[in-house]
Amino acid sequence: MAKADTSEDREKMGTQSRGNWSWFFWAIMVVHCVAILIFTRGFLLTRTELPYHSNCSDIRSSPCLFDSDTNLNNNNNNQSRSDQFCWTRPAVNRLVIIVLDALRFDFVAPSTFFEEPKPWMDKLLVLQRLASERNSSARIFRAIADPPTTSLQRLKGLTTGGLPTFIDVGNSFGAPAIVEDNLIHQLVLNGKKVVMMGDDTWIQLFPRHFAKSYPFPSFNVKDLHTVDNGCIDHLLPALYEEDWDVLIAHFLGVDHAGHIFGVDSMPMIEKLKQYNSILERVIGVLESQSGPGGLHENTFFLVMGDHGQTLNGDHGGGGAEEVETSIFAMSFKKPPAPTPSEFDSSFCQLDLDQKNMCIGSVQQLDFAVTVSALLGVSFPFGSIGLVNPELYALAGGTWDLKGPTSNCQKQSKLGEWMGNYVNVLCINSWQVKRYIDIYSASSVIGFSSEDLSQVSNLYAQAEEDWSSTKRLLLPEHESCNASSTTFKRQIDAYFSFLSSVAELARSKWTEFNLGMMAVGFGIMLISLFMHFFAIKMVSKSSGLCLPSSVDSDFPTLFIFTLFMVMIRALSFLSNSYILEEGKVANFLLATTGIVRLRYSIRENKRLIEAVAFLLLISILRFAIEVGLSKQAATSAFMNANPSWSIGFSISYHLSTCIAEIVSILALIVLACMQYKTVADRVCCGVYKYVIVATIFSYMLIAVHWALESNLVDFVLLLQGVRRNFIPRIIYAIGFGQLLLLVLGQLLEKETTLNCARSLFIKTVAMLSACSSTVIILSGTQGPLIALACIIGGHSIARLQSVEHNMKDKTPGISTSNPLSVIQWSLLAVCLFFSSGHWCAFDGLRYGAAFIGFDEFVLIRQAILLTIDTFGFSHILPVFGLAYLVSCQDLSGHQTDQEKFLIFMKLTQMYMIYGLITATAVTATVLCVTLQRRHLMVWGLFAPKFVFDVVGLILTDILICLASTYYFSQVKNRDVPQNQITEK
């Protein structure tokens, strides 16, 4: 028998009920964090980094030849540094490496090598001229990097000779010191002095290795000149000094110009012209001292990129433009012996002067071991690269042959080169085989026995051939009748072994812990069931009806909504659909819009909203197309692509001005919307001040964009701190608005407003507080995306009551419409892609992190980058979800029961939204589990996983904050007595 509760019991149980649902959001966030951490430990494991280092004495255990006079311990200070060498006889004495960050291959190669000349081509003419005129001692190479193509990954790969590991991408903004064996360590170990200048990432990777260093901050992508000017100031004077063996100068201007302006832009072209001038001066100094007895008589010169970049200036993925960079190599001694045609990968074509030019090909994986061989130091322990024959041949004629050589070698320059090279390959193969054996024994999983058997057989075959080849290289062998065929056969055997190891490592390097991955996936499934049962419990405890009991259309809509969620989730199983995720979301959103249009026509209601919603989806479809082409329609895009227009022949400056004027007009429209809310007499207290502050922020944003554009010319205001003054004010206003809203929560008094209207005002105030920061970080496209968000949200809110005609039923009693929530979620996805983002690290707009700031501070820049990336897709949609509930009934006075049900409906809506997000992420987890051996796992599936799980955790955090913000309005007395009974 039920008995009525006392007022005290009702208040106690009502508070407990609300507390339980708030606790659920925090609990589900913890569950997601645990699941993601466990799965990540199983999926994104790094390659096992072995703590071993190569030493000079190790060569004694190899089957290869080594000079008995070599200083094995390398500690004899009486021996001159030029005579010291370790595993191989040094081919060069000094090495100058100039790294041009994000150097595309077509920056260096002549335009005649491409189908169509572009404005950025043929700017590094000095390199093309030398490669053409001195093709025996200077050559351009197409260098292929391994993705991911972030700078840290590439520098680590270049110096260790190993393949990158995906999880290192997270360290790109705070590089840890490299602990495994590497080229820089081996240079220092062998008494070589290394001087570095430029990008300070080198100091983070190698903190105690350089004899001299001149680092400059590298993360301010708006700064095109600080790092480059620092390199120029120290590079030329250093070329006249004798106290170094290896000099590294890392320029960053091209990389930063690409990020901000794109490849086809005047700042990029000016940078390339500046580099051409610098390289001319550097080469002039080296040549002037390259004579007999000169300081650079035996200096090897390299100009290289660490990775490429897309036309939009991005990098990080595995696209051809990103992985293809260039290396220019030049020797200043006598012309070396030519590379045998069997080992020459060059392709030749006429250059701009109609001269035949040949361009070679090299893997960046081979860089560390090739440089080690040229300088005569032991190879990095974990290197799996191959000593490149073409790079090696460029310096192959520069050996000071002090050791014993055969008469055959003395008579034949080609025989000399092949004899030295085959012995270097023997050492190279022995080192790689040693590493593979130790790695497989030390690592948790290592390589499979079948793979190891195949590799061992190839090495055994090469070693068997070596026993006969070795005799041809011994000093006592005086016969010159031996054909180079023996050397070529031996080189082919080593090539087969080394290429097989590299292919094996690329396909199976990462160790997957399937047990931890299964546990993580299982916990994600449990979280979905938690969401589902929580939604049912909210419906049951609050008296909200189930979909099947409202009318005949609701079961169909409920099934249709589930179908939309599952279709999007299952699309993640295909790499093609992940690439087209924005289009998929837009198609599904359009499908739901057509369904809504059907009900609007049937009920003859909200036809304008239904048509406007479909029109908005069409516009977003076009914006997503632009985003998918990695050319977002921003002012930076206009600068990089002045010929782009929507079917009109408009000049560059006019189109830029129109884009900027349209953005400012959109800001004015947004400000008018805010003013209309303020003009409403029900908007009072702190909420009114918050909205007024947003209007002021919009005015400041318009002024800031006008100052930075060509519309007005205030040059003095764009310099130094003044250029950053307005963004900082906007950040401060936004932070103050959030504090004011928190203070308003604490001081909120009883109000005569109806509950729905009060919830509406709180929603608008929160969105206003967040919007100004999101818009200024998004650039001039920000107001347009914000308008799309408002129009789409308003249309969804107005259309959600059409299907079941709520006006004819008891207000506030029906359950939340899941179709509206899935539309809200799909709209958020479309906004992410239409704002120029995509799920890859080259989809991050790093320039947004420096709006208002020039110096790099990790936490601050990470926060700004997060707001820019997830502002329109996560932050505003989560806080704006309350609008779907608040706009259902903005007039009249609600009873306590109706107020309580409004907030229970909002709770249910947040649970449905969380369920939809968690379902998509669970599908992503399943996808990367099934596709862990896919060719695109690191280039596509892993970045998608990272973006989704970060988005899920951010969504959980925002839902928790939103529930705290919105649900505080419901009072204990709002809990109706008939909702709390005791059996």
In short:
The protein is mainly α. It has a nine-stranded mixed beta sheet with strand order 4-3-5-1-6-7-2-9-8, sandwiched between helices. Helix 14 (413-442) packs antiparallel against helix 15 and helix 27 packs antiparallel against helix 28.
Gross geometry: elongated
C-alpha termini separation: 6 Å
Main sheet: strands, sense, barrel: 9 strands, mixed
Structural class estimated from helices and strands: mainly alpha
Helix % is 55-70%
| Overall radius of gyration | 33 Å
Question: Secondary structure elements and their pairing?
Answer:
Blueprint (H helix, E strand, L loop, with lengths): L6 H37 L50 E7 L4 H4 L16 H9 L4 E7 L6 H10 L22 H7 L4 E6 L1 H5 L6 E5 L9 H13 L7 E6 L1 H9 L4 H23 L10 E6 L15 H4 E8 L15 E4 L5 E8 L3 H9 L13 H6 L12 H5 L1 H30 L6 H25 L10 H25 L5 H29 L10 H19 L3 H5 L1 H23 L3 H22 L6 H6 L11 H28 L6 H23 L11 H28 L7 H24 L3 H18 L18 H17 L23 H23 L2 H4 L9 H35 L6 H31 L16
Parallel strand pairs: 1-5, 1-6, 2-9, 3-4, 3-5
Antiparallel strand pairs: 2-7, 6-7, 8-9
Helix pairs in contact: 1-17, 1-31, 1-32, 8-9, 14-15, 14-16, 15-16, 17-31, 18-31, 20-21, 20-28, 21-27, 21-28, 23-24, 23-27, 24-25, 24-26, 25-26, 26-29, 27-28, 28-29, 28-31, 29-32, 31-32
InterPro entries: Alkaline_phosphatase_core_sf, Phosphodiest/P_Trfase, PIG-O_N, PIGO/GPI13
GO biological process, one term: GPI anchor biosynthetic process
Membrane topology: Multi-pass membrane protein
